[in-house]
Write the structure tokens for this entry.
Amino acid sequence: MNEPAASSPPGAARSQPLMSIGEVLGQLRVEFPDTTISKLRFLEAEGLVEPQRTAAGYRKYSWDDVARLRFVLTAQRDQYLPLRVIRDQLAEWDASDEGPGRQRPTLVAVGPGGEVPGRMSEEPAESTDVRLGRADLVARSGIDESTLGELERLGVLVSDPPGWYDADALIIASAVAGLAAYGLEPRHLRAYRTAADREVGLFAQLVAPLARQSDPAARARAAETARELVALSQQLHAALVRVGLRSTLGR
């Protein structure tokens, strides 16, 4: 089953047969392979999509619902936007004169400098999908062996036994290499590890009750909550540093 073009008129979209949640999953996984049924149910529970229901209670999705889900998943994957921001953008679209299937609001950065909140250019959808050996990490990040050893000694970077590194380790090492170009040494970065550990302890209290539940939807909500907390934390940190540097920059 091929999806009609996004420019199809509203009537054309409504004339298409409705799809089950499994069929929708098949459509979305082509572009978003990590999508699960639990994820789709979670997005419905958050009010981002409202599929029809049969008399027996089964979900039935239209092409407009699929386009809406694609909008949400793209915003999360490409711009790391929190659900509340995505929800606001969808609400603006719903309140506009544009019909389903037409041009949706542009996913724009909401940071004061035009940056995307929480976005990191090399961050993958799932960190554990990447496994790098020690030599690969050194080669790809730009740090040397002695720096890697120092980062591990300080607890700034941790490998997964037996010595494999994931995508987050690559991001950390690459950031360290960039900071080193300005004269910052690994010993200067221990404070980042300490601050991160404090945030982990705080955020864990918020997501642990959901993560411990056996309900897949609750666990999906825990993952989404953690994602949003990380994005908000990055926004806060960046803003505080900008404010702190204003006097130095004479602004």
Summary: The mean pLDDT is 78. The first helix runs from residue 10 to 14.
